[in-house]
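Example (one chain per record):
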Amino acid sequence: MKHQLVQIIWHDAHSVCETWTTKGEIDVAPCIVSSVGWVLESVKADHVVIAQSRILDDDHYDHVIAIPTGMIKQINRLKATRVLPVGDDGIQVESTDH
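Predicted structure:
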């Protein structure tokens, strides 16, 4: 499906200490990340590639990340279910079912 909006829950590779440390002082907690974007299909093998921003009706994207499939825990498809009232700033906000 073209331009499927998704939320991806994934394990991020991350630094476990800020300076020289002992093995016992290493932070062992996982770094679980939630990223939301439009799926860009067939871009990079063994990765799910998403873009945070895109120009509507065009092929230009911004804030693109490639997440290795082995690091992904869950993918949720997002779908707008209703439109919320326009805020004081005149921007219309849509609600999703996820």
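Caption: The chain has a mean pLDDT of 85.
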